[in-house]
Amino acid sequence: MRFTRFVKAVSLVFALFAGFVVATVGPANAQTMPTIVLVHGAFADTTSWDAVAADLRGRGYQVVVPENPLRGPAHDAAAVEKTVAGISGPVVLVGHSYGGAVITNIHNPNVRALVYVAAFAPAQGEPVALALDPIRFPGSQLLPPALQMKIVDDSSNALGRNLDAYIADASFHQVFAPDVSDATAATMLAHQKSLAVSANVEPSGQPSWSSTPSWYLVSANDTVIPPAAQRWMAGRIGAHTSEVQASHVALVSQPAVVADVIASAASGV
User: Fold this and answer.
1) Which residue ranges does the record assign to the AB hydrolase-1 domain (predicted)?
2) What's the rounded Cα separation, in Å, for the pair 55 and 204?
3) 184 near 177, Cβ under 8 Å?
4) For the chain, what percentages of helix, strand and coil (3-state, to nearest 5) are there?
5) Which end of the chain is less enclosed by CB atoms within 10 A, N or C?
6) Alpha-carbon gap, residue 106 to 100, rounded angstroms
């Protein structure tokens, strides 16, 4: 009788322990999935990530899409860093186009991987304009008259005003997003945000890619940042590199491919 009670007691303890393991280890494993932070580039806003964000959320990832002010790498990195600082656990930081310069200037120990999507990846002291050097990397169509300038209100500037660049309505579809439908291009144009001209020539700070594993998705049909420039940057930072037959906006025209690259980076965290 005593032996039977002993066996039952041991079984109860084991069952309770097993239940504790299931209740605690399972959620803990789920929580180890990194949060994905998607940083948009110039001539776009957070909606440019909508399809990629939906795909990643469908895979179980927490996704955050902060506003990028488009004022300059240092200013914008500080703004996005506030979002990153509010996230507990590992982070995969993703930048599209000019957003790559922003994530390059973010230094947070929770950031375990960087993903560049047709993006600038400057070295210390370099401006993003260096990667648009038409002698080394010909092919960009981001030139006047497609590229226009305007004076805008800017509270980040001591003068309260700034000179911004934007893509002319007539050129937006052809230059920026030639592989999306007319309707999608019209929606993207409606969400276009201008970029401070000074952001193109501001020297970048110490690069986060020098100490953080990086992935790079080259857009092989890009007419904004030439593919040759993208391959050069990807090689210099030692990124895991892949290519997609897409324009500058693969995140809109081929979101599943972009999401796959991000998920690959996340799986290594």
Assistant:
1) 36-261
2) 32
3) yes
4) 45, 15, 40
5) N
6) 10
